Amino acid sequence: MHRVCLTLPTDRECPATITAMAAEAAYGAREFGAEVHLLVLDSAAPPVRAAHRRAVATLPKSPGVVVHHLDEDAQRAFLRQVIAASGVPAPERLLTLMLPTGVSYGACTNRAFLLAEALGCASVHRRDSDSRYQHLHGAPVYPIHHELATLGRPAAEITGRVDRTRLDPACAGRPVALAGGSFIGELSVDVAEIARLDPEVYHEVVGLSVPADCPAPWRRNLVEEAFRGAGTEPFTADRTTLTLVSPTRVDMCNIALAREVYGAVPLPPATDTIGSDYFLLHLVRSARLPGVLHNRHIVNFHTPERRSDAGFLAYQERFAKFLLASGPMGEVHARMAAAGDELLDAAGRLRTGTVARLVREAARGGPDGNAARLDVLDRCYRSLGGRYTAAAERFAARRDGLLAEARADMADFALLLDAWPLLAAHAKGTAVPLPEPPSPGAAAPAALL
């Protein structure tokens, strides 16, 4: 049976999302005959995690759906087994990169990748806790529909199943490596308030993520489109395109990747850095691997915690680190785009070593301009006043640390890339830990491994 992993990495309360994703898993199993492993990777605080256990325990039994709810202790135990079996150097350092104490969008997804390997899955389908499904005529619109219909099949075989084809015929024999959509609703990055306070400051700040040599008109367009996803237009009918998918057209809350991608290359494990989990989208496009772009967009919303003073400062620091990562990572993206088909071996598989080399070359490059980026961010935030001045003060106090972390993040990524093929290989056959038992008195889980 075709086995896939539908995963939800979370550190916030989201019982409703778990319930909704279980229904998407059931849809995938029912409509496509797949065995869908719903994998909840739970980094939430104990009371919230208990609420998640209760939500899992009350899920209706669904044929073809297997649910895994793993806390960080269970995830750590699994990772220790895989790392020890692989014999890779610096095992404790790798464990920290895979399961850091801080928030890491890349690391949580990397854990899902290795667990999917252990479960024997052909693909990983990722969703987020701060998003929900659209509805049409009262029924949820599930992205897994297009993901299971196309992922892993030779592109030439699905030309009749999509509405449009914009793919070089030279790539038609390659399998579909990515299927994804975007989101509607609030910006994916919580910077709308900056645009309301001062549009010019918004353009200058967001423009820090755009390559310095980008022509002014293109730069302005890129800034205007950044973080907006698919806008606000609700779903009315399916539209699908076979193409080399642009990373700006999909979102990580609405993405599926074939194991041929994540089994070869992980995501950057940088902590407290938004956008670090988009690397594979750039790699898939640069390697000219086919993808399917669909319009079953997720509805994005922002949680109240982000609006609190503490949540605001933490989020703004993650945004600042994203801007600092944009310089060296943008160089990696440019080098991958120039490499093109050289990213693939003779059998069409991604070359992990080539990606690692490009990361190291970018890290060894000349001045990355991050000190200047922090100067711009400081000036712009102080001009906004209020809480943004407090954020500027925080950046100033952590200036040396922020610059050092941006450099270290590239070295850490290269280290993980070196180890990844062995980690992925030894994840296969490693037992997936049993889920936490439900609290006393709760209903028995519907389908737990």
Automatic annotation (TrEMBL):
Pfam family, one: DUF6271
Protein name (database record): DUF6271 family protein
Lineage, highest ranks first: Bacteria, Bacillati, Actinomycetota, Actinomycetes, Kitasatosporales
